[in-house]
Amino acid sequence: MQKRIHILAMGGTIAGSANDSSATTGYQAGAVGIVELMAAVPQVKEIAEVTGEQLAAIDSKDITAAEQLQLVSRVRELLLKGDVDGVVITHGTDTMEESAYLLDLVHFADKPVVITGAMRPATALSADGPLNILDAVRVAAADSARDRGVLVVLNNEIHSARLVTKMSTTAVETFQSPVGGAIGAINDGVVVFYHGAELHHLPNALSVSEKLTSQKELPYVPVLYGHSDDDGRLVKLVADEGAKGIVYAGMGNGSIPARVEAELGAAVEQGIVVIRASSSISGMVTKAEASYEEAGFIASGLLNPRKARLLLQVALVCGKSAADLRKFLA
């Protein structure tokens, strides 16, 4: 019996349309609907019983928290259904890693959830979208993909939502996992995983996902990017604007300039949660200066700033403490 895979379309480059088939920029993202996307890959019928729906038709750079929460809610509904064995999501690449990680945080089932996209629009010569969709369905239908959390599949590679990031502005091999590498691949149609599953969803993910379905927005948590001569004025600005948390993307191992450190310390005293992340592409943010620990800053571990932001937002919604966050990120 074939597996039953449901595809959710969110728009993005994979559904992009341009007037010239040689164009890979200047296209309209999300212009091609789910019916056309599925029709371009008739081979999926040989792999699974595939259904689809259009959840959004946006350029992912414009995605809002409300739209991400709608995606969380719909995926939750599908995972709870007995007649769905796996979910595939087509999504724009600019914020794919963020939506993937948000879904991974609240992934409560052993059913695969696979996110894919494309770097070339659907109308382009050598468009990469159709094969990515086919590979995503292959992974979602594979027994070996069960109980692995949310997976990101592009360019014949399988990555974990927690570690993957977009490395290149335009290359089709843009999605990489600098720490750990890809966890698997699709080799001539065969799904292969290199090692066992390592899950990183939040405790009580089912109830956390239910909590998120009642939300229309997420708490204001900006990411501030560290640089030379940073005087910390932006920390004070966002604190005054009502930030509930701050992710500071520092240098190296989450290093923070002294003036910024003072402002972040004042923010913690006001009840604002501060996560210390890094603007570096690779590596783990660990304990560093004793003053950071004394101030109550939380190291982001392996999470990049954008994912640390989402974790903090979800934690704030669910009433998680700073101690809970430290334990989760350790």
TrEMBL record:
GO terms for biological process: asparagine metabolic process. The active site is at 13 (o-isoaspartyl threonine intermediate), 93. Keywords: Hydrolase. Substrate binds at residues 60, 93-94. Residues 4-195 form the L-asparaginase N-terminal domain. It comes from the Bacteria. Residues 221-328 form the Asparaginase/glutaminase C-terminal domain. One of its GO terms (molecular function) is asparaginase activity. Belongs to the asparaginase 1 family. This is L-asparaginase. It comes from Selenomonas ruminantium.
